[in-house]
Design brief:
The protein has 311 residues and is α+β, with helices and mostly antiparallel strands. The chain has helices at 2-86, 198-201, 269-273, and strands at 99-101, 116-118, 156-166, 174-179, 186-190, 205-209, 215-217, 220-222, 225-226, 228-231, 234-237, 251-252, 277-279, 285-287, 290-294, 298-299. Strand 13 and strand 14 form a beta hairpin. The chain is elongated. It comes from Exocentrus adspersus.
Length: 311
C-alpha cells in the first residue's frame, strides 16, 4: 500500500507541475501579444507622423517652386514690355486689371523708360464709329393667286415596276421599285398583297401619284402611290395605254396640269380631289367624268371594275 501511495503522490505532483507550467506558458503568450500590439500601434503612429511630415515638406517645396516660376514669369513679362516700348509697340490694357501704360517712343538706347501703373478705368479707348447703312426699302412681293384644288394639282405619271419584294415587317405590303422617268427608281410601299399576285406586278406599267409627301411604312419610306380602281369586289391596278413609257404625264382635259412639288398635308389637296376620282362605264379612270389620258396615246383604264372609286 505504501508503494501505491508513493506512486499516486508522484503522479499527482507531476500533473500539478505540468498544469503550472502550462498556465505559465499561456500567460507568457498573452504578455507577448500585448507587447506586439503596443509595438504595432507605435509603428502606425510613427508612420502617420512620417507621412504628415513628408506631405508638409513636399507642399512647402511645391509652393516655393511655384513662387519662383511666378517671379520668373513676371520678370519675363517686364522684359517683354520694355522691349516692346523701346520698339514703339503700344501697350493695350487688359480688362479688369491694372496695366502698365507707357507712351510709345522711338527706340532710345541711352535711357530706359519707366512704366506707370494706371487703372483701366482711367484709360479711354477710341473706336471708329460705324457708319449707319441706309435701310433699303423692302420689296413688296405680289400675292400669289391660290391655285384651284382639282386634279391638275396631282402629279400623275406613268411608271414601270422594275422590282417587287414582300415587305420584311408587314405581311400586307409590297415594296416596289418603280421607274417614272427620273434619275433613279422610286420606292413605293403598296398594300396589294391580298389583291394582286406578285408575278402580275413584275415589269408592269402603272399610273403613279408622285407628289404625296414621303412617309415611312414600317421602317421603309414610300415615295409615291400606285393608283387603283377599288371596290368591295376587289382592287385592280390601273393600266396606262399600251404604248406608254416611263415618265409620261397623265392629263385631264379641261384641267390645267400644275402640280405642287409636294402636296402640303395640311391643305388636304388629295383628300379634296379623291372623292371625284372614279372609273366610268367604259372602265376609264376619270376625274368628274373626264378621263385620264396620256396625250396622243390613249386612256388609263381598269380591267373589269366600272363606276368604282379610284385611289
Amino acid at each position: 500500500m505504501s508503494m501505491v501511495s508513493n506512486i499516486c503522490r508522484l503522479v499527482f505532483k507531476s500533473f500539478k507541475t505540468f498544469k503550472m507550467s502550462e498556465r505559465t506558458a499561456i500567460e507568457r503568450i498573452k504578455a507577448n501579444t500585448e507587447v506586439a500590439k503596443k509595438t504595432i500601434d507605435e509603428l502606425k503612429n510613427e508612420l502617420s507622423n512620417i507621412h504628415k511630415a513628408y506631405t508638409s515638406m513636399l507642399t512647402q517645396q511645391l509652393k516655393e517652386e511655384n513662387a519662383q516660376l511666378l517671379a520668373a514669369v513676371e520678370e519675363a513679362k517686364k522684359s517683354l514690355v520694355n522691349l516692346e516700348n523701346q520698339n514703339g509697340v503700344p501697350q493695350i490694357p487688359v480688362p479688369n486689371q491694372t496695366v502698365s501704360v507707357v507712351a510709345a517712343k522711338k527706340p532710345d538706347t541711352t535711357s530706359q523708360e519707366k512704366s506707370t501703373a494706371v487703372p483701366e478705368s482711367e484709360i479711354k479707348e477710341t473706336k471708329p464709329k460705324k457708319e449707319k447703312k441706309e435701310k433699303k426699302p423692302k420689296e413688296q412681293k405680289e400675292p400669289v393667286a391660290d391655285l384651284p384644288v382639282d386634279v391638275g394639282r396631282l402629279d400623275l405619271r406613268i411608271g414601270k415596276v422594275e422590282d417587287v419584294q414582300r415587305h420584311p415587317d408587314a405581311d400586307s405590303l409590297y415594296v416596289l421599285k418603280i421607274n417614272c422617268g427620273e434619275d433613279k427608281p422610286r420606292t413605293v410601299c403598296s398594300g396589294l398583297v391580298k389583291h394582286v399576285p406578285i408575278d402580275e406586278l413584275k415589269d408592269r406599267t402603272v399610273v403613279l401619284l408622285c407628289n404625296l409627301k414621303p412617309v415611312k411604312m414600317r421602317g421603309i419610306t414610300s415615295e409615291a402611290m400606285v393608283m387603283c380602281a377599288s371596290s368591295e369586289a376587289g382592287v385592280e391596278v390601273l393600266s396606262p395605254p399600251e404604248n406608254s413609257t416611263s415618265g409620261d404625264l397623265v392629263h385631264c382635259e379641261g384641267y390645267t396640269r400644275q402640280p405642287d412639288a409636294v402636296m402640303n398635308p395640311k391643305k388636304k389637296i388629295f383628300e379634296t380631289v379623291a372623292p371625284d376620282l372614279h372609273t366610268n362605264d367604259k372602265l376609264q379612270a376619270c376625274y368628274k367624268n373626264t378621263p385620264f389620258t396620256v396625250q396622243g396615246k390613249g386612256f388609263c383604264i381598269a380591267k373589269t371594275l366600272k363606276n368604282v372609286p379610284v385611289k
